[in-house]
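Appendix B. One record, verbatim.
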Amino acid sequence: MSALGKVVHSGVGRRRVQSLVMALTTCTAVMSSVLSLGLLIAVQAPFEHAFATRNGAHLAVQFDGSKVTAAQTAATAHAAGVTEAAGPYPIAAALDTTIGTDCPKSSWAGHDNHPITVTTRPDLGSTSGMDQLVLVQGRWPTSPGEIALPATNYADACFGSSVVFSSLPGKPSFKVVGFGDSVTNSATGFATAAGFARLTAAGATSDEQMLYRFAKAGTDADLAADKQAVSAAVPAGAVEDGQSYLTAEQQATGNAKAFVPFLVAFGILGLVLSVLIIAIVVSGAVASGIRRIGILKSLGFTPSQVARAYTAQAMIPAALGVVLGTTFGDLLAVPILGQAGKQLGTASATIPGWVSAVVSLGALLIVGVTASIPALRAGRMSAVRALVVGRAPKADHQRGQRAQALASRLPLPRAVSLGLAQPFARPARTVLVGAAVLLGTVSVTFAVGLGTAFSTYQDTTMSSGFNAASMIVIPTADVGVPWGQYGPNDPRHAYLDAEKVAAALAKVPGTKAAFGWGDSGASMVGAPIGGEPPAVYTVSGDFSWTNMQLLSGRWYAAPGEVVVGDKLASAVGIHVGDDVTVVQQNKHLSLKVVGINFDTHGTDYSAMTDAATFTAAGLTPHIDQFNVELARGVDGTAWSTSAAAALTPLNASVQSNSDSGKNLLVLIMDALVAMFTLMLTAVAALGVLSMVAQDTRERVHDMGIFKALGMTPKQTIAMVLTSVAFTGLIAGLIGVPLGVAVEKATQSPMGHAIGRHLPPNVTHVYTAGLLLPLLAAGVVIALLGALLPAGWAARSRTATALRTE
């Protein structure tokens, strides 16, 4: 090993704690950076690539065929902001379908299928123009009796069988000959012109669809303005809906992008803390090793070699941290990207290798630059001066003495007043300690708020609204039938007589409240047609006890009014006061939007209305479940026995409301937040330890004098701890509001990533009971870091300390 290598090796070996701190903080920064950047690239890249190569449409607009001509529709290609357009294409939206009885898998034969939006184009398999369709399996239809569907809209086991348009007169049937799709879900069924004519002949409404690309289409606001420009070019009321590519992007990337904002926040905190700790450690090594630097130079080491030696002492543990951070980041991405892969409908993605390489090289570069600044100062130091000084420059005694004089006037024990004065003797070092504690406090405050928000989100989605109940009542015919086995329009699906069941439940002793609800089987015109189909729920009875969150407007109060879920409202651009159209079995019903609620049901998009809305229009509300809340102290088993006697004649059965389980992605987020918080807090505390240990070593002679004058070990510990407690308090008072601000800034993009408007109980989690303990976080971090050096100072012998220079 070369002489330089031996110096580096011995330096790392002497500073094991400091090396551990540098490795840990670099690991934290790299891990969070790899995760955030990697997740963003891994989940975003497939959609962006497909959208670009297939020339996807920014907006697909459906026009009411009874209010506008094909020529008027085509003329919208010249609306303001349009750079490219295609169409018009005939389209029939939200047609109810079932899987044909010819499906070889009997459990699927006759099963309700997704509502399908069917279109026809001159050349379905074209590889030019806008919104190029891609065939995944089979072929494109060539005859009137054939159709192609997305793979997600039909059972794989039934490929080659038929799909029946069950809501149309005559129930026309088509053979599924291909699985194909549009990158932006502009339609979910593709037929020949003659095949499409079969649907309109059977009573389907034929509208027109235009596809557009715009000069400015990066945000929802941009697309809303673009849609307004198109609407202005046709008669009022002619535009029925517009499908945005941003909605398709959100469906494709799923919830994985929700991880990115808080991982970026932790990455920035980790990076800043890493730079700070490395600066502390290397500066401390230079300050405490001035005599060693002088010896090295007198032995022939050049300024460059001295600088490289001290830089390398930081680079070695940092390199270890980079390797560990990259490895753990890649491993932690596996479960997250696995969930994203399911939502993308592809094999699980992985973090690209170039992401790990860029983050690793960037981290090493930052570490190198940070470490080289004090290292270059060591290299430029005069050998003679270093040997004469022999140790770190003395503290500013004049400033320190003034601070001690002021502190001594306080009605405090002398050891405490000495500790309070110590930070003023070395203000630069005090600032570094405060900065480390500040970042630790910000991390803790941010994490506690985020963790509380996650927990509240879980509780809100799992135990309120349609999930709130002590007991549930379902049709007896559904007992033992897997949930979702039969769709709402399937004749095999059993329903409840809502009026009779409600009356029976009201008479059962112990019933506090109950309401009935079910999926009406209706679809909403203009709702996103990709992914899980939107649901329109009908509700019978009072559900005010369920703590369902209303975000804007009011709850419905009369037939014809509807409350729309926040995710559906965001995706489509629905606002309170708008009119929406729902379709059940090819019958159209216009509803007034009176409120937007925080949707707690499992479906992606939903709306809810009074069951009377459907019965008044001669439609079936499809109530298939009652949620029952029992009075306090009522035994569930005894109540079930009483209820069964009343409900059995109504073909209804009672079940306990089982826990639907925790959201896996939220659990992963919680675990990541806890892990990063522990790591950053530990790093902050270890940074304090490093500074206090260095300060204690430099003041060991002074401590020997204090001990000779009668200072006890307990007083020594009190003095050392007090020297950082005040700094920790100030850093904590500053760090808590900063942590709150970081949490607020993170929540908004997280909600946007999953297409949700979060309710106030999730966005406002910092109560007085939560903030008051956090104000002490800075003191706790500072004391934890100073505890070991304080113990060492207390155990040091007086004679040894007095002999130390």
